[in-house]
Amino acid sequence: EMANRLTLSGLNCEEVEPTDKHLRQVVVGQVVAVDEIPGASKIRKATVDAGGEKLTVVCGAPNVAVGQKVALARIGAELAGGMKITRATIRGVESSGMICSESELGLSADHSGIMVLDSSVVVGKPLAEQLELDDFILHFEITPNRGDALSAIGIARDLAALAGVKVRRPEIKLVETKEKATDFISVRSDDPVGCPRFTARIIRNVKIGESPWWLKKKLLMAGIRPISNVVDITNFVMLEMGNPLHAFDLNRFGSQKVVVRRAKSGEKFTTLDGNEHALTPDVLLVTNGERAVAAAGVMGGLESEVTENTNDILLEVAYFNPVVIRKSRKELGLNSEASYRFERGVDPNNVERASARAAALMAELCGGEVLAGVADWYPTPLKPKTVSLRPSRCHLVLGVSVPTETMKKILASLELTVSGTDPLEVQVPTFRPDIDKEIDLIEEVGRIYGYDRIPDSTENKGPLITPLHLEDTFADLLRRIMTAAGFDEIMGHGLADSRHATIINPNLPQVRIVNPIAEDLNIMRNSLIVTALTTVSHNLSHRNVDLRLFEIGAVYFPPDAQGNWCEEDRLMLLVTGNTEATWRDHPRALDFFDLKGAIEKVGERVAGQEDRYLIEEALGVVWSYRPVKKACFADEISFEVDLMGKPIGCAGQIDPDILRKFDIKQPVYLAELTISSLLSCRRPLTQFSPLPVYPAAPRDLALVVDETVKVGQIVSAVRAVAGNLAESVGIFDLYQGKPIPPGRKSVGITIVYRSAERSLSGEEIEQAQQKVVAHLKSKFKAELREQ
């Protein structure tokens, strides 16, 4: 129920996992004897007391010893990784179970040795019961705007609001010495934008050791490996409160002052993982005034880390700018739990409380003495903002009438301060940086009130329940057309490599990205061709060579002379390779006419008629392919495409020189059409014509014309002269070669004469045909070729 409620409120719970998933049939055992096995150097025979029953177990762990209390998996247990425990004979010794490591129990990745339990556990009892692991883990997928939910208290806050109760926070019992921390340490930030707040606290005389089981358990369940009591406490408080912390060895820190600054170009720094980094000014550093001791908000330094010899702790809790930490993390190539939280925003005004919580735990678990107070650099405190909420607007957006008092109660339960009636004045704490506008407050009301409580009704007029935009339904139509034509859809992400974009369209302006996620994704694409060729190259490298692809996506252009940015939706069609072989058809190479057929299929559906000839009769020639020179197309197959007299895009064969840049070695034919232009050609209603009842009279003409004469011009001329008597005009043959003279070509034309009102006489048809022939001879110097 907890998982369902939180999911419905926007905190998506992906999985509910029992903590004893791999602990069934696992009990507490005690090693009573360890004996060598003759001829075996890496395994030994252990006798384990399982609670009144002694079992023989073959064990290869180097740390097994007499007297240890261990995790004993009995016959039938199923451990992590799918391992099932069965009775087995190894080197002549029958093994009736297994002594387990933390890795085999699914508690951590540690498989260096067996898990040694605390002496207080009871032999023979179920391990899950003794370790208090009869519980559940909820796995959440937190959206980037909800940095407050990356902590136990953040999740508890939402859950309390859903349940109508208050969050119960842990009580902090901090006992401090008379000495002041500020007498021994000072803090300063030379980059107040990158680090608006920094605090330091001193804990002396700590004893580094292993954490108690309750603390280790909480970290293990959260997927964090326990290290030592001090480090474990910093991780625990981060998981509990959401504020990352870092503990330095004060005696190895190198000075009595902390200075936060930007790195110098080329400055060297070694992180905790042992890797040395050459830095740039994008990286924010914590220093001792001279040298770096930590990459702020990302990872600590190797030279000041806490070790088993550490006595005094310098505890850092700070607030860093999310954008600065994101750049630092990218520059270093590191990811950490701390950077993950800082990038999404932590609460700058919870810093001191998190510091006090960690210090109190270090005093309790490490025997430390906490110096009084905290060195706090916070020159410009970040204050809660106030956002107004109109109840009437909330009703309109949600589509349901939520009483004003209920709104107040919901917002107050999320620890927002509410005053006023209409509008409500809501003071938003700094732990919710995502709440900035009225619509954000409406979302908070909606998700806690319950989206499942909002009725699904046709009378609901809220702006959240609106019909699809015309562009969306039109895009769906195009998808249906293209998939029916045998094309596969691809989906690009909108980013491209400026070098590829320049090669394809050198004269097209580009929208450059200031902070690209990769060098080869540094612009917003200005053509779908870039994505298409990248996709083809990827498919060819995986031996998928016969492709018919389409994409519906946006292209982007920088501001024009008037300062207007442009984002335009387009349709890309592409064919390459061969047709599919069937029992009756041999495969053939896909060519421009396959692409042209797909384009015209789109046009026929867009125009609202399936019969292209009826469209032509009503509107004139639908299609026009005008030869033009485009940088991305081969000169001989490069066209501007018009539909119903309106330019809608371009089509052609991709230039082989460009294909080589993408490592493509086969012809590619591509069209890029503008969605808005296609949409403007769409008829609002489909028009139907009755089936013809009078006979048709087909006539063929074989004409010899100059090779410069376009076939489309001939078709247009025939239609103009024949008028309504010509039901359709088509091409059945195109030929060059002997006996046709050089520079000339033969074009075969079929004209179908028919009237929808009466039967045509032979004389009428002959007159129309002679008129057509005379016009073609006059306009194109055409000669009739003998059939």
Relevant terms:
787 residues, alpha+beta
Textual characterization of the structure:
Helices cover 28% and strands 27% of the residues. It is α+β, with helices and mostly antiparallel strands and 787 residues long. Strand 30 (547-557) and strand 31 form a beta hairpin. The longest helix has 19 residues, at 762-780. The protein is elongated, with a radius of gyration of 38 Å. Residues 464-468 and 609-621 have low confidence and may be disordered.
Mean pLDDT across every amino acid position: 88
Radius of gyration: 38 Å
Q: What characteristic shape results from the CA principal axes?
A: elongated
Spans of 5+ residues with little confidence (pLDDT < 50)?
464-468, 609-621
Quaternary state reads single chain
Task: Kindly summarize this structure in a few lines.
The protein is α+β, with helices and mostly antiparallel strands and 787 residues long.
Task: List strands and helices in order, with pairings.
Elements lengths: L1 H7 L3 E7 L7 E11 L7 E6 L4 E6 L9 E5 L14 E3 L2 E3 L2 E2 L27 H4 L5 E6 L10 H12 L12 E5 L5 E4 L7 E8 L8 H9 L7 H13 L3 E5 H4 L3 E6 L5 E3 L5 E3 L5 E4 L4 E4 L3 E2 L12 E7 L2 H11 L4 H8 L6 H16 L2 E4 L2 E3 L7 E5 L1 H8 L5 H10 L3 E3 L4 E5 L9 H12 L20 H15 L3 E2 L5 E2 L1 H7 L6 E2 L10 E2 L3 H14 L5 E11 L8 E11 L15 H16 L4 H8 L3 E5 L5 E11 L2 E9 L1 H6 L6 E7 H6 L16 E10 L4 H12 L3 E10 L8 E10 L8 H19 L2 E2 L3
Parallel strand pairs: 10-21, 11-14, 26-30
Antiparallel strand pairs: 1-9, 2-3, 2-5, 3-4, 5-8, 6-7, 12-20, 12-21, 12-22, 13-20, 14-17, 15-16, 17-18, 18-19, 23-25, 24-25, 27-29, 28-29, 30-31, 31-35, 32-33, 33-34, 34-35, 36-38, 36-39, 37-38
